[in-house]
Amino acid sequence: MEDNDRVTALEVLDPAHERPGYWDGFRARILENAAFELARRREAARESVAAVLSGWSRSLIPVAAAAALIASIMIANESRQPADPAPRLVLEDLLGGALGASSFQATLGAGVQSNTAAFMAFVEEDTR
């Protein structure tokens, strides 16, 4: 088969082979069907940042409210369960008589309620 014969055989596969205005009509149908979407995109390109954020807020505010409701339910359920006692932390100076023991052992046997200042003093002492 020569090249000309191949081209002639392939011309049959072209949709516009026997219809001269096929591709122009095809393009016109596509643009007609896409006109609404193209117009929507043109309008969206003109919107300001505030308008876009306002549009997002319509869906984000209900989702955020639902997340807050779920979080509050989870916190309420967690607070109903009995909590494990926290380790008792105190300053070694306040223990009196535990000067010979390490601060970790003195802290475990102190029997005093934990507080943030004592914990920070305990951590800072062990890092020196």
Describe it:
By secondary structure, this protein is an all-alpha fold. Helices cover 69% and strands 0% of the residues. It is built from 6 helices and no strands. The longest helix is centred in the middle third of the chain and has 32 residues, at 49-80. The chain is elongated, with a radius of gyration of 38 Å. The mean pLDDT is 75.
Morphology: elongated
Structural class: mainly alpha
First and last CA, distance: 91 Å
Q: How many strand units?
A: 0
Total count of helical runs of at least 4 residues: 6
The average pLDDT is: 75
Largest sheet: none
Low-confidence stretches: none
Work out the strand percent: under 5%
H-E string: HHHHHH
Provide the helix percentage.
Answer: 55-70%
The radius of gyration computed from the alpha-carbon positions, rounded to a whole number of angstroms, is 38 Å
Helix and strand topology:
Elements (H helix, E strand, L loop, with lengths): L2 H9 L10 H25 L2 H32 L11 H4 L7 H6 L7 H12 L1
Task: Provide tags for this entry.
elongated, about 130 residues, mainly alpha
Short description:
This protein is mainly α. It is built from six helices and no strands.
